[in-house]
């Protein structure tokens, strides 16, 4: 398997010991020839695989193996039937956005509860093919949970580096439950990434962060499945939250390949939403700059977005250039309100995911998105990933809490209609 530096074009083999960036500092992209791929034939095969059970091709990632990692032997693939997630419309959500048609693609329904599974199944499988037995990541939580799950299922060892502060306890507990070796450190996600970039090779560890281009290959399946769900006609807008910007990187590569292979006729526009106090990418783009100035102290309640130096920003910038894309930032209060709307719609998500809807609402109000256009928001993580957020809103009445729904005591001996 072959990668290429996106900055200088240098070819880089994806073999052991793995390199995760070019000597020039550029990010890597998997490169393979798309010659000989027949879109119509593959569409038919992808449709047939939807009916499968009990084979890796029943997975919502490996269904698209030809477009992700055709050279990986089936025997090394560790799959938990990831993907295959729901695409929903909820009236309250559509009304809240101020539009007529909004879809939610619920990657929260993945086996470990976040979209990280789409990429992780691919990274772990590739690492196994190279003979690695120890897998590592630095993470605000969901990458750790996903890695821990796949490593456990594949009989390998996982080590996860987790910042001591500003993370969701649920996610760390999930990693502990799967048997990961959890190492907490003083510092931010960005410090953890820097450590791995400098030391993973020496320590014989396979890195499962999004610097690893194989994770990005797996995450392309989110766009593939959305496109297939919509009969290969994407909505006008795809809206996603931006933290480390891995999702944006994968979406960009997926859309580029789908378009050049003729799976889709037109490119959608893309909106990347950041949390106001962790928005270095939005500030760069809004300021018309082409270099990212890291935020040394990001601080948002949406813990999955609490990232000051998003590694994949050059790929995200390329996505914006190719899709006439936009960025927007939203306050934590708006995120929590949008989350409550999604929860009340019977779908639910963790705070970071709701940034997409909060951002879409802002863009409609700013006149950037027209109410008659269509949009799909990516819901990145599950409602139960952050139960503290539910407690804060509904029990403690924080975050405005205009839709607060606390429990009320009832005396069963004399309960009347007013009580129930
Ligand atoms: C990882 C994550 C994000 C951020 O995605 P990036 O690819 O890092 O931009 C958003 N929401 C949730 C729930 C996540 O786990
Ligand atoms: Zn380079």
TrEMBL record:
SUPFAM superfamilies: Tryptophan synthase beta subunit-like PLP-dependent enzymes. It comes from the Bacteria. GO terms for molecular function: threonine synthase activity. Residues 400-420 are annotated as: Disordered. It holds the Pfam family PALP. Its cofactor is pyridoxal 5'-phosphate. InterPro entries: Ser/Thr_Dehydratase, Thr_synthase-like, TrpB-like_PALP, TrpB-like_PALP_sf. Gene3D superfamilies: 3.40.50.1100. Residues 79-381 form the Tryptophan synthase beta chain-like PALP domain. Its EC number is 4.2.3.1. Keywords: Lyase, Pyridoxal phosphate. Belongs to the threonine synthase family. NCBIfam families: thrC. This is Threonine synthase. It comes from Paenibacillus aurantiacus. The lineage of its organism: Bacteria, Bacillati, Bacillota, Bacilli, Bacillales.
